[in-house]
Predict the 3D structure of the following.
Amino acid sequence: MSAGRHAWGTTQQSACNPADPVPDARSTRRTGRHSGTPSAVSKTVEFIQINLQHNKAATALLNKSIAEKERCVILVQEPWVNKKRILGLKSKDSFIHVYQGCSSYIPRACVVTKGLQAYCLPQYCTRNQTVVCIKYKRFNKEQTLIAASVYMPIEENLPSPGLERLLFYSSSNNTPILLGCDTNHFRWSSRECNNRGVTLSEFLASTDLEVLNQGSQPTFCVGNKRTIIDVTFASKLIAREIHNWRVLPEDSFSDHRKIYFAIKQDKQPTVRRRSVKNTNWDAFEDELNAKVGLWIGRVNTPTEIEASCPLRKCGRRAKVPWWNHELKKFCQKANKAFHTAYRNSTSQDWESHRAAKREFKKALQRSKRASWLD
């Protein structure tokens, strides 16, 4: 769990394969507009950054959010783990992939992608750092982005060797990089600072990274202690393309709040697949018999017998099977209690919030058990 204080500075540069195309910094602006021929940029890659504190309820709500999105990247610190395995985020959905940096130790960071072409960079992954290379299209050009989830434990010196190697790789290959970090320090928009925070700020000032955090909304809130220890960094090559950065207002069921931002991309073509389990086998047999007959006739192309199993639009949005009306009510109650306690800052209101979360967790356990038995 993050106990900490916080810090960050500015600047750091990009990374990946020099052959990979990158956005032209001179032809784009922070708003994401392009000076060339306009293309149908009507979709976005959504990002969520959060420290789950190994919390099952927080993991369940995050899993629900992932299911409802088409294309997203989730930068997670301190995921729910058991015996070095990340739990609660994996799915049967073929579009969802979970990457963890290290299998030899209990991971403190992971990255979840959905609906995107992505692969892990294990040579830059550690127990506290998971790095994924993501490819997407913008203005009909393939773009490459390195996304990393980084946990900075309070007991280790900064910057870590793994982070230094990653930033060097990024800058030497001129590929954009994005870091979602739990810094465990204290500085920006705060009245306190420590030596770790100063050290990290000085290191970041020597790089090409920019801080994406906006405003003074706390990202860590437990009782009346509110700090900004969750920070998003991006190299200048990609910082201007990132928009709508904000701390989400709802209760995440973790002491850390969700951070949201997005990157625009070209509209993706519709994916169509055949659902074998929904095949009309009676119609299939009739079509096959009509074509082949007893001894004569043949099937020239597969399309002649595919009417019984047609191609259907494959949506990436889904619903988690355990979510129900009861959980929705308990979640709304806990969210309302959180905002009341956050606003009034009284011990009684915070106790009411904790009680509301306990009710939700019990209902969640019942609902998941019932869903599994069904």
